[in-house]
Amino acid sequence: MKRQLALIxxxxxxxxxASYVNSCLLTGVVLKPTSTMMMSFTSPEGEREASKLSVxxxxxxxxxxxxxxxxxxxxxxxxxxxxxxxxxxxSLKKGQMIKIQSMLKDAFPQQGYRQxxxxxxxx
Length: 123
What we know:
Layout: H1 2-11, E1 21-30, E2 34-35, E3 37-43, E4 46-68, E5 79-85, E6 91-92, E7 97-106, E8 113-120
């Protein structure tokens, strides 16, 4: 019985996949004033609206926020130009401190990674 099980395990390919996630909470200073942009467009499903926020940010602090396979130290001291999809309507001033969640995930079944950012609003 053990031999049959071993033979099955050796003959059958493994379809497992190790996922990669890196979630960091970034605290930074806004370097240029900005505000949410609203866009309207027509799609086959009808009229739709989308919003985005482009931010230039100097990272002051980076810490794990959930699962962080590679850690978050690589963000510290860097300047990032990021785009946040579907943010709330907001205006940011130069010098304002904000928090952003950075999420990097593998794009399985496609190759590569997906990077996304979420604005964390103060409570």
